[in-house]
Amino acid sequence: MSEAHALDFSWTDLPTATPNLAGTGGRIREQLEDFRVVEIPSYQPVGKGSHLFIRIRKEGLTTRDAVLALVSEGLSENEIGVAGLKDKRAVTEQWLSIPNRHAAAAAALDDTPGITILEQTRHRNKLGMGHLKGNRFSIRIRGCEEDALERAQAVLTQLGVIGSPNYFGPQRFGRFGRNAVDGLRLLRGERVPGSHRLKRFFVASLQSLLFNHLLVERLNRGLYTRVAVGDWARLHQRGGTFLVESEDEAARAERLEISATLPLFGRKVKPSAGLPGALEALVLAKFGLRWVDFASRRGDRRISRIALGEVAVTDEEDGLTVSFALPKGSYATCVLREIMKVDVDALASQAT
């Protein structure tokens, strides 16, 4: 694969974890209500405090559309709190927060076509980005194969054992899937037009693409369901991260209690030792990069597998409805791709 092609996002470059199982086929997002998302907060408002928490339902609107409705009432964007960004081509439920002194501005949300206020309460602090546990999805797949129910059940059963790959989806790479190209150009010292914020997004796209490449390496080498000595593993339930120093941890990985984390390269991230570290160096070298090239970014570690929750699948007259819960930062399209075995990029990339 050429470097230019390797920098483009394409689902076809990312192997599934269930290639042995047939997909349902079908189509998603034919109607707004075919894709439903409900935010799972990391904490519940206590009912008193300096901030008004507002739970809304949006139809065909971005989170930013809701924010701008409040800005039109005189709030600054910095005063408005959100925990996550939700799809446009969907029916979504999420929380926002505003200072109590601006409580009257909440009416602007109910006056916005496509937005309904479901609940209002109060809390001590502003809602912050990332203040959520995850999201619950209910997705209609239309035009499936005749035995789609059995196929979907088989895939979901296997994913319950091995987990779903935690790839970054197309939303991370821009409209044409090429933002990582500009990220690499920036790290090489080339001039790239755009604001400082946009340039940071380009580099973030490159970090995400390298993560995907690392995950592909693990899948191709039989390391997907394993942890190796030198890995930094994370507990799925409690979230703690630790260095794998013994092969005895393999059993917990096979039970999907822990999974390896892979780096989003940056100055605060430690390189792995052993084989995991060799794979990190291999992927960096593929693009002529080094850890130090990401010194301007803080960096992080992202878990390599998703443990699905609240899984259900029901037969419909024209297809299926699949439901599942994912931790924050994970993409439903990664799971849908395992189930459907088709390219879900075309419509998923229109989400914001």
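The above is record 1. Record 2 follows with the same two-line structure.
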Amino acid sequence: MSTPQPGQPEPAEPEPTEEEMRAAWEEQLRHITVADVLVQTAVSLVNLAGRRLGLGPDGEAERDLAQVRDAIDAVRALTPVLERADGPETLKPLRDALSQLQLEYAKLAPGAPPAPPSPPPAAGSQPAEPGTGSAPSSGRLWVPGR
């Protein structure tokens, strides 16, 4: 293999064939789990909901509270399945992000119906302690001093 001279572009790598791309895809599918896809879906929904709250670079131009509500409901529906696969402690960052979305949504949609209670925690999980920033397992928001 020759070394390119200064100022000359490096030789382009050949495009993979359809067969090589299919083999790479099959290899990825051998290693991915349903839980991996569900976590990625939940994270994508949280990120999209943040943008639809108006927290993205375009601010309020992207605000769509109906989409935020749907994203919150979808992540809440996925949470019990993810807890079975990964355990409740692994999902703490996701639950925290979901709690923040719910708070922001509640601030922006004062006429919105209250969210149904969160699904019960997985068997053996402990409710969050006050002051940790997590919503308790009852589904109600923790309010300092209460």
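Confidence is low (pLDDT under 50) at residues 127-146.
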